[in-house]
């Protein structure tokens, strides 16, 4: 864990807190859909845009040579080698409906390797942080994944794309998974699902289609808490899988048997 990575985490935390406070304030004033994106259920609110603008501005004011990639804006190339990966609200549909499961996700990467990450969930009142090689924390307390269990006893989170065609495939794979595990959860935030694996409130997470901004910070939190997180690149979509290290082989094989990998490759 380098001193610079700790500084990146401190900045990530500062901007995520500011972004989270802004999004909370905007929620109290009333949330409405500002636009739709890939499909009519893929929404963006004014708060998504305002939060990303704030995070980008704060980060680049502090570190003008860095790059930034975020869900709601352009890919800004920097010259320092550090890239910020931002999802201003992960769980926008929950945010729209007044459900608490949403988070501001801010990560810093060197090249493709995430080195610091923050997942801040204002409505849940929790903040997850991690620096590569420095462990993972929830509100400052160290995190550890759950003891590995047989897959048949595992509680697994998943998520669905905004595309109806992709959803139909995902539904078939999830139906197979459901018959093989303790139960399945769909909570609506990839970042928080990964933090759930980190803190032991889930035994695994699998989803076809998340983007880098969805999983960058949460994956580091999970890895630093003792999980394996694998992103399998497909021609169109990536498959993201996470499970405690000791349960990884069984979990990865199960997901493959259920047809998740077929869907993304
Ligand atoms: C979504 C959430 C959801 C996942 C979707 C993501 P958004 O992000 O993480 O849990 O299933 O794949 O797109 O749109 O709320 O930022
Ligand atoms: Ca997201
Ligand atoms: Ca988002």
UniProtKB/TrEMBL annotation:
Transmembrane segments: none annotated. InterPro entries: IMPase, Inositol_monoP_metal-BS, Inositol_monophosphatase-like, Inositol_monophosphatase_CS. Mg(2+) 2 binds at residue 90. GO terms for molecular function: histidinol-phosphatase activity; inositol monophosphate 1-phosphatase activity; metal ion binding. Its cofactor is Mg(2+). It catalyses: L-histidinol phosphate + H2O = L-histidinol + phosphate; a myo-inositol phosphate + H2O = myo-inositol + phosphate. Keywords: Hydrolase, Magnesium, Metal-binding. Its EC number is 3.1.3.25. Mg(2+) 1 binds at residues 71, 87, 89, 214. GO terms for biological process: inositol metabolic process; phosphatidylinositol phosphate biosynthetic process; signal transduction. Pathway: Amino-acid biosynthesis; L-histidine biosynthesis; L-histidine from 5-phospho-alpha-D-ribose 1-diphosphate: step 8/9. The keyword Chloroplast does not apply. It is an enzyme of class 3 (hydrolase). PANTHER family: INOSITOL MONOPHOSPHATASE (PTHR20854), INOSITOL-1-MONOPHOSPHATASE-RELATED (PTHR20854:SF4). Belongs to the inositol monophosphatase superfamily. Catalyzes the dephosphorylation of histidinol-phosphate to histidinol, the direct precursor of histidine. This is Inositol-1-monophosphatase. It comes from Nocardioides scoriae.
């Amino acid at each position: 864990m380098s001193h610079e990575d700790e500084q990146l985490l401190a900045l990530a935390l500062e901007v995520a807190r500011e972004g989270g406070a802004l999004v909370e304030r905007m929620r109290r004033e009333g949330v409405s859909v500002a636009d739709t994106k890939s499909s009519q259920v893929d929404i963006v609110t004014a708060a998504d845009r305002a939060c990303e603008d704030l995070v980008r501005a704060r980060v680049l004011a502090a570190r003008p040579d860095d790059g930034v990639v975020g869900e709601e804006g352009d890919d800004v190339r920097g010259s320092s080698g550090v890239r910020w990966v931002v999802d201003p609200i992960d769980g926008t549909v929950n945010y729209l409906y007044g459900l608490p499961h949403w988070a501001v996700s801010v990560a810093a990467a060197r090249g493709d390797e995430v080195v610091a990450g923050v997942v801040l969930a204002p409505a849940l009142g929790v903040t997850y942080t991690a620096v590569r090689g420095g462990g993972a924390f929830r509100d400052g307390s160290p995190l550890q994944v759950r003891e590995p269990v047989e897959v048949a006893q595992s509680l697994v989170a998943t998520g669905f794309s905004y595309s109806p065609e992709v959803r139909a495939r995902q539904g078939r794979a999830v139906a197979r998974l459901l018959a093989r595990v303790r139960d399945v959860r769909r909570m609506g935030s990839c970042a928080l699902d990964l933090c759930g694996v980190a803190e032991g409130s889930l035994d695994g997470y699998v989803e076809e289609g998340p983007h880098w901004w969805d999983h960058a910070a949460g994956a580091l939190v999970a890895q630093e808490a003792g999980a394996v997180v694998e992103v399998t690149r497909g021609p169109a979509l990536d498959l993201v899988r996470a499970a405690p290290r000791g349960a990884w082989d069984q979990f990865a094989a199960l997901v493959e048997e259920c047809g998740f990998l077929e869907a993304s490759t």
